[in-house]
């Protein structure tokens, strides 16, 4: 405990001398140095920093590097990260000038802030951490997924046969090693040394595990997939932290990495790979069973409840499920159904446009936000239009339910519609579509689902989305100075189609 207090005291001494928590943009460490991304280096009190007993020196580079020495830096860094997070949480949020109640943008922003505060439960924070592990992988999943789709198209057409093997290698290389990246990000997110998490997860994809027997059967390279990698890296973090507490600092650089990989590796090989493999297989089997038997009903529920799921932040739990399905089957059959929630939202927004012909402000907002909505970026429409109005949010969910039922119905008939990557939705999902009955059939079913979602969302909102009081209140001309919702609503990340309670986390919502 005394050692922990000393490390925290060192971190507490360093933080104010580098400008405080607000000045720190990133925190990592190498073998001997605490490497900080600083927003304003002029705030660093370098001479006072050098006078801190644990500080051996500083180095100016792309990052501001504080030399603490082996062993010490690995113990001080987690304490420093905790202090930075505590400092940011304690700092008063930037107070925006109060806006009038008539501005829907302000109402949407307030609702989002309130939901974000409610989402700060241990369970939801855990889900957010899971999302932080997988979200950085999305660009590679998208890029490799599109290349895989292009390669499949060329193979089916018999074109460029000399090029398709190269495309196959590009598309498959990342997926073959995705467990390593998951392990690296997991260790980083849970406060361990990232490369050790990656090293332990690499055991899962090592071809030599085929010669090892566990639970009475031979292991297979990749068995357990991303779930096994996640579990192995979390275990590695705990083993590493245990070692940091008990291993003398002089031996830390040699003993801690060795014990971390050894202990975590043995548990992974003779336990986690088998267990995670069984869980992964069960996930794939259940998804297939759900859509094969539930069909339209399952699609109705999934498409209809996805927007509320996003509002609660619970959609993050689906990210490893999507990734597992992509790893197993080459595509996730859940995402195209969930993407119908965005279609319902677009249909609802168009209905609002026609139902409020005198409200220039809202109509201008909808016109500016609709292109992004068609591409799957739904946040401006949700937080700026449908959610503050109330009923249109519910009718948007109805549209998503009908679109999901349409796609689910065809899944029940045997036409699986899937996505080779997570993140995009709406029209942006077309290049990533894949299925079991040819690309043409897959595209037609997905496009049909979008049309059904648009139409159902429009009809439900036009006829049932407004009470008389709501129409009286909002179907009036607004002041020209009123801020467009699209300008004031929190911005979503186009690459991932985020529509959730924390857009800064870049969570893929698939709407």
Question: What characteristics describe this protein?
Answer:
4-stranded antiparallel sheet; 6% strand; globular; single chain; disordered C terminus
Structure description:
The strands form three sheets. This protein has a four-stranded antiparallel β-sheet with strand order 1-2-4-3. The protein has a two-stranded antiparallel ribbon with strand order 5-6. Helix 9 packs across helix 10 (225-246). A hairpin with a 3-residue loop joins strand 3 (57-60) and strand 4. Helix content is 63%, strand content 6%. The longest helix has 46 residues, at 249-294. The chain is globular. It is mainly alpha-helical. The chain has helices spanning 2-14, 46-50, 72-90, 104-118, 122-134, 138-157, 164-176, 178-189, 194-205, 225-246, 249-294, 296-312, 319-329, 335-338, 340-355, 360-374, 379-389, 391-412, 439-464, 468-474, 485-488, and strands at 24-29, 33-38, 57-60, 64-67, 213-214, 217-218, 417-419, 433-435. Residues 93-102 and 480-511 have low confidence and may be disordered.
